[in-house]
UniProtKB/TrEMBL annotation:
InterPro entries: ACMSD, Amidohydro-rel, Metal_Hydrolase
Superkingdom of origin: Bacteria
A single GO molecular function term of this UniProt record: carboxy-lyase activity
Pfam families linked: Amidohydro_2
Domain Amidohydrolase-related: 3-247
Stored PANTHER family: 2-AMINO-3-CARBOXYLMUCONATE-6-SEMIALDEHYDE DECARBOXYLASE, CATALYTIC_ HYDROLASE
Lineage: Bacteria, Bacillati, Actinomycetota, Actinomycetes, Micromonosporales
Keywords: Lyase
Name of this protein: Amidohydrolase-related domain-containing protein
SUPFAM superfamilies: Metallo-dependent hydrolases
Keyword Transferase carried by entry: no
Species of provenance: Micromonospora echinospora (Micromonospora purpurea)
Length: 280
């Protein structure tokens, strides 16, 4: 079984406004259709794929997906999909949204987008959010790394901020998205330190040299087990992500250095991520 820990629900233009929509073509060189269609996702993923679906809330960047839409989407396919709520803690009412999404809608994790929303995730002001998630076993998927949105402050996307959160909340399960690119070394330093902190490899395969280099660092630091598979659909697909990982695994490597461990790449693709995140 393959577990995709990072896929989205967007209904455009209802959920995605500017500047996010206007600048999305910078993501990887060209226009991206952000409207999510289950039939298209399913056609580009193995039939046994289990998928975590997130919306997203970041008023600063023009992104707002109501949690009820995610709950309805996953409820139609409960054997395949698991839904997360999303929070923008810069906006009033986020605490009520947290409890409603968890208790009433039955969503099982939390998506945070600090850079897009414009907040420092290490700020102790958000410890109530983290304590709630830790207490109720709600894993976090946190955007780390760069973006195409000009209004989003890069400093809030640095993986090191989540080190402070993990120190204060050691039982909180977190996934740092996109291996923190282009700050992969920093991301690796964070996930190596903390038992329950992981990184996903979503939306990396279409930069193959960067992916190869990042996985080479992962191998050198011995943190292969801390990587989880993800796609970042609709920016790319499960099948394309698997193919991209296997492609860099076939690269001979630099003379004098070992190539990437292809067995570890296969283990990454088939990682039992739901068990690791307490969602099995």
């Amino acid at each position: 079984m393959i577990v995709d820990v990072h896929s989205h629900l967007f209904d455009c233009p209802e959920h995605v406004g500017d500047p996010f929509a206007a600048e999305a073509s910078r993501a990887h060189g060209g226009e991206v259709d952000l409207t999510v269609r289950w039939s298209e996702y399913a056609a580009t993923a193995p039939a046994d794929t289990r998928t975590i679906v997130v919306g997203g809330k970041a008023r600063r960047s023009g992104l707002w997906v109501d949690d009820a839409a995610v709950a309805a989407y996953v409820a139609a396919r409960p054997d395949r999909l698991i839904g997360y709520l999303a929070l923008d803690p810069t906006q009033p009412g986020w605490r009520d949204e947290l409890e409603h999404g968890h208790r009433d809608l039955g969503l099982r994790g939390i998506k945070l987008m600090p850079m897009y929303a414009g907040f420092d995730p290490a700020d102790p002001a958000y410890d109530d959010l983290y304590a709630y998630a830790e207490r109720h076993g709600l894993p976090l998927l946190v955007h780390t790394g760069t973006t195409f949105v000009s209004a989003a402050p890069l400093r809030y996307a640095l993986p090191v901020h989540l080190d402070e959160v993990a120190i204060r909340h050691p039982e909180l399960r977190m996934v740092l998205a996109h291996l923190g690119h282009p700050y992969e070394g920093e991301c690796i330093a964070v996930i190596r330190k903390h038992r329950h902190v992981y990184a996903d490899v979503s939306a990396l395969h279409y930069r193959p040299f960067q992916l190869w280099h990042s996985l080479r660092l992962v191998q050198d630091y011995g943190v292969w087990p801390k990587l989880l598979f993800g796609s970042d659909y609709p920016f790319t697909t499960v099948d394309a992500s698997i193919d991209g990982l296997r492609r860099v695994g076939r690269v001979p490597g630099i003379p004098g250095l070992d190539p990437l461990d292809v067995d570890q790449i296969e283990q990454l693709i088939h990682r039992p991520s739901l068990d690791l995140l307490g969602l099995a």
